[in-house]
Amino acid sequence: MAPIDKFVAERDAVADTLEYIDSKVKAHQVTPVDGTSIPILLEEVASCRVKLHEIHLKIRTLCPNHMGTHKQDLFLLLNSADSIHNALHGIQASLPITNSSTNSSTQQIRLPKLDLKAFDGSILEWTSFRDLFTASIHSNTTISKGQKLTYLKSYLKGEPAKLIQSMVLSDANYDIAWQQLHDRYQNDREILFAILRRFYNQPAANSSSSIRSLVDTSKECQRSLQILNLNTDKTTDAMMLFTILNKLDHTSRELWEQSLKGNSIPTLAELFEFMEQRARALAAGPKPRNSSKPEPSPTRAHVHHTHTESNCKVCGVNPHPI
C-alpha cells in the first residue's frame, strides 16, 4: 500500500466514526441518547477533529502540490464534526438538569492525546509545530481556551516553556501565550536561513547510509522551502542538484553521468531516484575488507653453521699435510 493510500484509509476510518455518532444523534427522537453518554460522544468528536488535522498534515507533506480533493474531503468532514458537536450540545441542553451540570460535564472531558513532538525552540521545528497545533487545537471550537493553554504548555520545553511558564491557566491567557510564541519564533528570514544552513552544511556521502541521509535531508529542506511559500522553480532545483552532486563521491558522480541521456538538465527527482538506487547497490555489495589488520611478520629461518675438517682422502686418518 502506498503511503498516500494508508493516510486516506486512516481518514476514512475517522469518517466512519463520525458517521456512527451522527446516526445516534439522528435517531435521538426514536432512541434517546443517554445524558451520561453525551460527554463521551463529545470527546470522541473532538478526538476525530484532531486525527483529521494530523492526517491532513501528513498528506500535505507527502504531496503538497495535489491537495485539491484532499482539502475538500477535510472541509466536509470538519463541517460534519461541527454539526454533530452542535447537535449533541442541543440534545444536552434539552435534558433535565442533574447534579452534574452541563458546564461541569463538558469541562471534565478528557483531552485527547496528540501525536505531536514537544517544541524546544528550534527555529527549524517551529513551522511544523505551529501548523499542527493550529490545525489540531488552536482552530478547534470544541474545547475552551483554558484547555488550549493546557495543551500548549504540555507540548513546550526548554526556552518556549520558560517563556509562558508564569501564565496561569485561564481563557484570557491563551491568546497572550500564543502571540508571545509567534512574536519570538515566527521569523521567516531566520527560518529560511536555518533551512539553507542545514542543506548546505550536509557532509559528503560515500556509503549507503550517508547517501540515504543526504536524500532525506535534502527532501526535507525542499519541502520546508515550499511551506514558506517560496517559489522553488527550475533555477532553485538546478542549484540544489549541483550542491548535492558535489557531496557525492567520485564513483557515484561518474555513474550519474553515465546514466544521463542527451544534454538536457536533469531534475532533482531524477537525481534522488539515482541516489536511492546507488544506496541500495552499495548496501547489497561486498563489505570492504579491514585494511587496518596487521600483516603477519615473516618467519625468519635460523641456520647454524658448524665448522668441521674432513679426514685425509688417501689414508683416511685425521687431516695432515701431504
TrEMBL record:
Ranges where the record places region Disordered: 282-322
Which Pfam family, just one, is annotated for this protein? DUF1759
Q: Which InterPro entries match?
A: DUF1759
The name this protein goes by in its record: Uncharacterized protein
Q: Tell me which species this is from.
A: Folsomia candida (Springtail)
